[in-house]
Amino acid sequence: MGILEVKGVGKRFGGLHALSDVNLSVKENTVHAIIGPNGAGKSTLLNCFVGKLIPDTGSVMFDGQSVLGRKPHEINQMGISRVFQTPEIFSDLTVLENMMIPCFAQRDGAFSMAAYADMMKDKDIVGRAEAELEAMNMADKREMNAASMSRGDKRRLEIAMCLSQQPRLLLLDEPTAGMARADTNNTIDLLKQIKEERDITIAIIEHDMHVVFSLAERITVLAQGTPLVEDVPDNIKGHPKVREAYLGETQVAA
Amino acid sequence: MFGLNTKDTRLLILVAILVVLAPFILNPFPENSAMAQFNAGYPDLMQRFVIFGIFAIGFNILFGLTGYLSFGHAAFLGVGSYAAIWMMKLLTMNVVPAIILSVVFAGLFSLLVGWISLRRSGIYFSILTLAFAQMSYSLAYSVLTPITGGETGLQPKLNDPRILDGALAEGATPKANLFGLEMGASYELGIGGWLFTLNAGYYIAGVLMLASFYLAIRIFRSPFGMMLRAVKSNQQRMNYTGLNSKPYTLAAFVISGMYAGLAGGLMVAMDTQAGPERMFWTVGGEVVLMTILGGAGTLIGPVLGAGMIKYMENIISKINSKILHEWFAFMPDGVEDFIVNILYPFIGKGWHLTLGLIFMAVVIFLPGGLVEGGQRIARLFGRGKKASEKDASGKTTPAE
Ligand SMILES: Nc1ncnc2c1ncn2[C@@H]1O[C@H](COP(=O)(O)OP(=O)(O)OP(=O)(O)O)[C@@H](O)[C@H]1O
Ligand SMILES: [Mg+2]
């Protein structure tokens, strides 16, 4: 049994079958990549995990519990954190405040009416936020306004925010899309480091095959809404079906 | 001190000093001088300063922190007023129950309005709140006349039950009081040509304003306050971080509604009357202007904005062409008439025009309101001395 079990998931948008009969099992403490050509349904599938979309058919179980019908904040509280394609952070707040919010969410739950306490005097939360910044080499930026950071740093901050909640499953949707090579390599190193240092399961959607083959332990190839193959990276590389799906896309061969 | 950091403590103490000394600070001109009409240190106006200050402080907790722009907060002011006046009719002329109940009723009503309006965000939320306020206004005017007194509104009458008070003597008027201290009671202090009025009602409202301000600072610095800023900054990230943004926004809405109710209750405590015009949408619009003018999302901004608008409403509107002619009498006749004619549309009833121009100038040149203006001036003076230190420390301030 994987930590995330997807069975027979289907999703239609009007006449378009974005997903049909998707089965997927993500094993605990592995990095599982989902790849596929544009419009294959990767983002749609991810959105079904986090409560943004509800599939028409099938089931999505996280750690033995169904996530279907739950709100995004409830699913996060179950232990799933999500990193977005364009970094979603609290731009108007400082870096430290950005880190404190997920810590509060994890400790105090989805809503807490702590309107009279001084947040900076909460040693537990400030300490955790600072430790996480330290671990991500961002301690020097703590007073900075999050909006004024570089794109690479925003991505780093977003990942740090997700990790500070000690999620059991981290979902990443094209975390290096639109990044320069140097930033992409930094992100790969960061994710490798996270994988080594923590007990965490990572599911990653990615276009960049360099990223996929540097990180993934298992790969699922999605095409036209259905999984074509699921295997270890070495077997995916030369797989004829995969070449077919990516016809004309030279990235796989590279 | 008081659980605040040094900077906030300093701000609170500064505001407290200003509130205590306002009767003196606002009356800088001798009674008989030509400038005496710029004196704002009379009880009626000072009461309005602090009461609208409370209204704006509360509104800022919703609008300044979460970014949800309500045009309907006049409704809560009105509900607070009606609740207070009924307490004065049924229970006692002591303002304590009136004020407490005004907060409670405004809180309950804002819970209902907020619960419905917060199903939408952005402009749709604003329109919904506006619709609620206008509905409340029309209802107070028509169907609810038995409760609201319709167009004439409500005043305490001699024959009201007032079960906690003893019967009043025939011909006496019921007066609002705090355990016997009448709101209208004033101590007049004449020093030379100056006359200062220390009014009980003003100081009671002032103390409540300080308490409201203190509470607002606590909210701003709390985890709850940070979540409200998170609502404004990125609701999507917030929800995917395991936080339910709905109850946070609703709580902010209800808190600001309670502040509005307190303001409404205090208005009744001062003038012992309530009418539907307090629910008119322009009243809700006024508090929006105050907050933006002073600086939305800042601590002191809404208070400054409220003070500025109330000052202009009362002082500029009193200037007439005769006064203008007096001022410019030293000029040659033709020039004098010319200047008076140009200025005339901006004074008296034209004070709205002046306010509009100031408001536009602030929004365009000082998006952070008067507070930003103050910060810029402070920086201008601080630059000469501190520029070298700042460069050395290498700290970059984020670009706006
Ligand atoms: N909300 C929606 N309404 C209608 N159609 C949608 C919606 N979301 C996605 N689609 C369609 O569903 C299909 C799958 O889209 P999806 O975004 O999941 O693909 P993807 O694999 O993530 O592609 P990419 O690599 O370009 O990100 C596409 O044809 C897309 O146009
Ligand atoms: Mg996608």
SSE topology:
The complex is a heterodimer of chains A (254) and B (400).
Chain A (H helix, E strand, L loop, with lengths): L3 E10 L2 E11 L4 E5 L6 H8 L7 E6 L2 E2 L5 H7 L1 E4 L11 H14 L14 H13 L15 H14 L4 E5 L7 H17 L3 E5 L3 H7 L2 E6 L2 E6 L1 H5 L2 H6 L9
Parallel strand pairs in A: 3-8, 3-9, 6-7, 7-8
Antiparallel strand pairs in A: 1-2, 1-4, 4-5, 9-10
Helix pairs in contact in A: 3-4, 3-5, 4-5
Chain B lengths: L5 H20 L17 H24 L7 H17 L4 H23 L4 H20 L3 H4 L28 E2 L2 E2 L3 E6 L2 E6 H21 L2 H11 L1 H5 L5 H27 L9 H14 L6 H15 L5 H7 L5 H11 L7 H15 L3 H25 L7
Antiparallel strand pairs in B: 1-2, 3-4
Bound molecules: adenosine-5'-triphosphate and magnesium ion.
Magnesium ion (MG) binds next to α1 of chain A.
Task: Give the CA-CA distance, first to last residue of chain A.
Answer: 34 Å
Tally of alpha and pi helices of chain A: 9
The biggest sheet of chain B amounts to:
2 strands, antiparallel
Please write the string of helix (H) and strand (E) elements of chain A.
EEEHEEHEHHHEHEHEEHH
What's the average pLDDT of chain A? 91
Largest interface, and how many residues on either side? A-B, 43 and 33 residues
Order of helices and strands of chain B: HHHHHHEEEEHHHHHHHHHH
- What does the main sheet of chain A amount to? 6 strands, mixed
The CATH class of the domain at 4-92 and 166-247 in chain A turns out to be Alpha Beta
Fraction of helical residues of chain A: 25-40%
Total number of strands of chain A? 10
In the CATH scheme, what's the topology name of the domain at 6-281 in chain B? ABC transporter involved in vitamin B12 uptake, BtuC
SS class of chain A = alpha/beta
The radius of gyration of chain B is: 23 Å
The set of bound ligands, ions and cofactors reads:
adenosine-5'-triphosphate, magnesium ion
Mean pLDDT of chain B, as a whole number? 91
Q: N-to-C terminal Cα separation of chain B, in Å?
A: 32 Å
Strand content of chain B: under 5%
CATH H-level superfamily of the domain at 4-92 and 166-247 in chain A? P-loop containing nucleotide triphosphate hydrolases
